[in-house]
Backbone:
């Protein structure tokens, strides 16, 4: 593929907007979003705005999807959309069910297009920095052909196998991420409940081998009472549902995710869905008898 190929992007949420901006800096870009409120920053970067998802495909050679779930994707699969797929490449970067991804791949292929599954690992900051990890799946030749268009989004794009393999890798990675987040919340809550100074506890954690760039970011958010989403809590809960379903399908157990899922469900029901995923701390705090305070 030549670097002059036209690129499209559908879905300008927390992750989609910075991803689209990184693409717009390198390639001609056409975008669509359900809510037009996200268009201004893309217009400033030179992106073209169109009225429907089908028009994105018509104006592009390769189109990236970053939509919330399979229902959101299904809602754009109009007759016009499918007709516009012929000769085009569709890359789904969102997290969906494996069976849905396989069925979407079949629909794209039947329409005369190519499909690449590429869920990404990382939150808003890595998305802004173009440092996401892509888990590519599908036809290996097509996956290799689109690498120049994946580079502005990722620090690494790893080919995982046939369609479904990228999502399976994402479920496994998110299992570690989610249990780590809840474990960090429980650790902070215990330190707080014992009367420890949290800034001092942060210094101890940062000196330990368990520390990571992720833990440092999340602990700083807690100390600053900064609940603005880097990865929204509602998205994290959606991930727990996908992981639990994947574990059941694989006939294995995921006991920690089951506990995390319940905690995230409680947090969602408490109205924390638009906050950062570390806001699960507030639910962990309630269970320790601290009365549901919004403060660490």
Residues:
């Amino acid at each position: 593929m030549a670097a002059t190929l036209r690129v499209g992007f559908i879905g300008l949420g927390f992750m989609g907007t910075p991803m689209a901006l990184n693409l717009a800096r390198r390639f001609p870009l056409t975008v669509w979003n359900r809510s037009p409120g996200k268009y201004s920053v893309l217009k400033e970067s030179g992106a073209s705005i169109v009225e429907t998802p089908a028009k994105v495909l018509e104006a592009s050679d390769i189109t990236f999807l970053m939509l919330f779930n399979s229902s959101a994707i299904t809602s754009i699969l109009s007759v016009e959309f499918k007709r516009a797929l012929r000769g085009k490449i569709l890359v789904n970067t969102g997290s969906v069910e494996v069976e849905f991804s396989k069925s979407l791949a079949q629909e794209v292929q039947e329409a005369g297009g190519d499909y690449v599954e590429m869920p990404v690992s990382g939150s808003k900051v890595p998305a802004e920095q173009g440092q996401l990890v892509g888990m590519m799946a599908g036809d290996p030749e097509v996956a290799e052909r689109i690498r120049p268009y994946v580079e502005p989004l990722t620090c690494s794009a790893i080919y995982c196998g046939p369609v479904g393999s990228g999502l399976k890798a994402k479920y496994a990675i998110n299992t570690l991420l989610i249990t780590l987040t809840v474990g960090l919340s429980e650790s902070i809550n215990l330190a707080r409940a014992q009367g420890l100074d949290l800034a001092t506890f942060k210094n101890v954690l940062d000196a330990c081998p368990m520390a990571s760039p992720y833990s440092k970011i999340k602990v700083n958010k807690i100390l600053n009472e900064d609940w603005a989403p880097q990865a929204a809590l509602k998205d994290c809960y959606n991930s727990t549902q996908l992981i639990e379903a994947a574990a059941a399908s694989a006939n294995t157990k995921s006991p920690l995710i089951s506990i995390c899922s319940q905690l995230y469900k409680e947090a969602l029901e408490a109205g924390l869905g638009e906050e950062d995923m570390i806001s699960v701390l507030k639910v962990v705090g309630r269970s320790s008898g601290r009365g549901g305070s919004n403060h660490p």
User: Anything to note?
Assistant: The CA atoms of residues 84 and 173 lie 34 Å apart.
